[in-house]
Design brief:
Blueprint lengths: L2 E4 L3 H12 L4 E3 L6 E5 L3 H11 L8 E3 L17 H10 L4 E6 L6 H4 L4 E5 L4 H10 L3 E2 L14 H8 L5 E4 L10 E5 L9 E5 L5 H8 L3 E3 L23 E3 L10 E8 L8 H4 E6 L6 H16 L5 E5 L7 H12 L2
Parallel strand pairs: 1-8, 2-8, 4-6, 5-9, 10-11, 12-15, 13-14, 13-15
Antiparallel strand pairs: 2-3, 3-7, 4-7, 5-6, 9-10
Helix pairs in contact: 1-5
Bound molecules: threonylcarbamoyladenylate and magnesium ion.
Length: 333
């Protein structure tokens, strides 16, 4: 089994930084989900990420930086759209990834040959401490096997990746619990003067617009292959079949071998007498609390060997948009 050490222990951070500088893999906590990190400037280290995750090579990785003013290490600043600069400097550290023209130092392996690179500065003390200690930009996708649920606790990483990772830094449960919002910029990805949301995530698009004044549109598929695995229909999926219920047609016949997952609020009165298991992500209706519990709850339900998981989704406001997006993809067959 992979070793797990406390994320803010100075000795553990020093060991993790050494591993990264010598081409190894470290799982690190971020505010969204755990990331599987490697030196973004070392193509062989990056290759190990794809192997460990069994991730198809066409699926590009996010590069993490210690601070916004390091953007020039991985992006082409002479081609950087002004809107991208405003969003990056206005929202980092934070749960938003910008997709911008790639600099020469970044291996093509990171971007799967695409001319753009995805970059973010995570808002997590251990991730930032690790980035500073390693001294290199870190490529880090979510630390799960490809297509499976993203890890929001160190144990989830160990369960999914085992020995494929050299060290896991344990920072406790991730506060946000859904991945970053991915926004593309420039002529290949967005209309002039705009950003295009390629994946809904932790920072809602309304919040990005309010904070930066940069107008955003919903991303369109501009390449033949899916731009983001977030755009692959089936993704973030438990093994147990999952279906979204129509809130106006909630079943009432007994289903002892099924679970009901209520995304927000208490759910219907008859829930506990109808379903064998009832899980409420946020009984009080707070969507951020629901996002925080989403992946860990799906994992727990998945372990029970149920015939199915029925889901009552939440409204698509704020982070609710990312939540419903992940639930739809988990339900896709
Ligand atoms: O919150 C997060 O974003 C987490 C933490 C670890 O930072 N990372 C994460 O990485 O979710 P991953 O690899 O699971 O998702 C990266 C997303 C994918 O949807 C990927 O296709 C997209 O970013 N992406 C990366 N590079 C891209 C590029 N050059 N063009 C378009 N999309 C890109
Ligand atoms: Mg992922």
């Amino acid at each position: 089994m992979a070793r797990i050490r406390p994320a803010l222990d100075p000795d553990a951070l020093a060991e993790a930084a050494d591993i990264l500088r010598s081409g190894g893999l470290v799982a690190m906590p971020t505010e969204t989900v755990y990331g599987l990190a490697a030196n973004a400037l070392d193509p062989r280290a990056v290759e190990r990420i794809f192997e460990a995750k069994r991730r198809p090579g066409f699926d590009p990785l996010i590069v993490h930086l210690a601070a916004a003013d390091e953007l020039g290490r991985v992006a082409r600043m002479d081609e950087l759209p002004e809107e991208a600069r405003r969003v990056a400097f206005g929202c980092w550290p934070g749960s938003i990834t910008v997709v911008v023209p790639k600099g020469d130092a970044v291996s093509d392996r990171v971007t799967s040959g695409l001319p753009d690179v995805a970059v973010r500065v995570p808002d997590h003390p251990a991730a930032l401490a690790l980035l500073r200690a390693a001294g290199v930009p870190l490529a880090a996708p979510s630390a799960n096997l490809f297509g499976q649920l993203s890890p929001t606790r160190a144990e989830h990483v160990a369960d999914g990746l085992g020995d494929a990772v050299d060290l896991i830094l344990d920072g406790g449960p991730c506060t946000h619990g859904v991945e970053s919002t991915v926004v593309g910029f420039g002529p290949r990805l967005a209309p002039p003067g705009h950003g295009a949301v390629l994946r809904h995530g932790g920072l809602p698009m309304e919040a990005i617009i309010a904070r930066t004044g940069v107008p955003l549109v919903e991303g369109v598929r501009v390449l033949e292959r899916p731009l983001a695995p977030g755009q692959l229909a089936r993704h973030y999926a438990p093994r147990t079949p999952l279906r979204l219920l129509d809130p106006n047609a909630i079943p009432t016949s007994p289903a002892p071998d099924r679970a009901l997952l209520v995304a927000a609020g208490p759910g219907p009165d008859h829930a506990d007498t109808t379903w064998g298991v009832v899980a409420r992500l946020a009984p009080g209706g707070d969507l951020r609390e629901a996002a925080h519990h989403l992946f860990a709850t799906l994992r727990e339900l998945d372990r029970r060997g149920l015939a199915g998981i029925d889901v009552i989704p939440c409204s698509e406001d704020g982070v609710g948009r990312a939540l419903v997006d992940r639930l739809r993809r988990a339900a896709a067959r």
